[in-house]
């Protein structure tokens, strides 16, 4: 049995809603790709604080939102008490033949091993059900993460590849996995989506919110020093008109359970 790698619940749901609401705003166009129909039963996998689940709910979909983070699920429940939310790990879904669609925005790059998540997604779909996902693809935020790793090492700390918290496949790699599990892949796309991170501290806030697994064993003081150097070295490449622009690269896929 492969080891399931986990990310501890370091999510700050309030910070996420205040500073990173762009995540669900970008998800709006993924909802268009999902093309939800009235009365469908849809799983929102990695629902965060529930904003896209609410959008589905408003289209008269019977939506269930799940997230691995208790903080996120608590916030989602308090924002949208009429919607069903639950804490669940994408690699251990409990559902069988239940959903017309599984929808996932900006989540699957956190989930390892990906085969296990795909198997769970496949099992949770009804025959003919569809899987629509967007997440970080090959090369995602690589300018930022390469610089963080360089600065961690220059500050005298060891950095092991296993510390890298994300999975960023190419569409070739991911669609092959989907086919291996049994999906018919009907759509796949890999594209650049430069993403503004608001304000002077945008990059620092992003690293604070998402990058903590890269800094395990490093004190707050040394982390601050490392992040300051990352900012210094990246400002010419990633700062435009007062905003940080992160080098996001996305993949989007649609698979059908045959
Ligand atoms: C992403 O959506 O690609 C992403 C978000 C946070 C950390 C890493 C990647």
Description of the structure:
The chain has helices at 13-19, 22-34, 51-58, 70-79, 114-124, 142-154, 171-181, 202-210, 220-238, and strands at residues 41-45, 62-67, 84-87, 99-105, 125-136, 183-192, 195-197, 239-240, 243-246, 249-257. By secondary structure, it is α/β, with parallel strands linked by helices. Helix content is 39%, strand content 24%. It binds benzoic acid.
Keywords:
single chain; 258 residues; alpha/beta; Rossmann fold; 7-stranded mixed β-sheet; 3-stranded antiparallel β-sheet; 9 helices; 10 strands; 39% helix; globular; disordered N terminus; binds benzoic acid
Secondary-structure element sequence?
A: HHEHEHEEHEHHEEHHEEE
CATH domain fold name:
Rossmann fold
Bound molecules: benzoic acid
Query: How would you name the oligomeric state of the polypeptide chains in this document?
Result: single chain
**CATH class annotation:** Alpha Beta
| Number of structural units classed as domains | 1
Q: Major beta sheet, specifics?
A: 7 strands, mixed
Poorly predicted segments: 1-8
């Amino acid at each position: 049995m492969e080891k399931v790698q986990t990310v501890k619940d370091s999510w700050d749901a309030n910070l996420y809603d205040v500073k990173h609401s762009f995540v669900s705003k970008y998800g709006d166009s993924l909802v268009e790709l999902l093309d939800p129909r009235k009365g469908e039963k849809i799983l929102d996998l990695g629902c965060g604080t529930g904003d896209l689940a609410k959008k589905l709910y408003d289209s008269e979909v019977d939506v269930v939102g799940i997230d691995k983070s208790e903080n996120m699920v608590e916030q989602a429940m308090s924002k949208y008490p009429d919607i069903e939310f639950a804490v669940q790990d994408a690699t251990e879904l409990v559902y069988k033949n239940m959903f017309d669609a599984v929808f996932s925005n900006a989540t699957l790059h956190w989930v390892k091993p990906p085969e296990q998540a795909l198997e769970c997604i496949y099992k949770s779909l009804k025959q003919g059900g569809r899987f629509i996902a967007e997440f970080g693809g090959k090369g995602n935020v690589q300018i930022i993460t390469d610089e963080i790793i360089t600065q961690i090492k220059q500050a005298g700390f060891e950095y092991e590849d296993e510390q890298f918290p994300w999975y960023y496949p190419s569409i070739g790699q991911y669609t092959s996995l989907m086919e291996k599990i049994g999906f018919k892949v009907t759509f796949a796309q890999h594209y650049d989506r430069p993403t503004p991170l608001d304000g002077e501290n945008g990059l620092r806030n992003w690293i604070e919110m998402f990058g903590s697994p890269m800094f395990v064993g490093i004190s707050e003081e040394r982390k601050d020093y490392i992040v300051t150097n990352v900012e210094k070295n990246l400002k010419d490449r990633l700062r435009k008109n007062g905003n940080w622009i992160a080098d996001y690269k996305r993949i989007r896929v649609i698979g059908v359970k045959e």
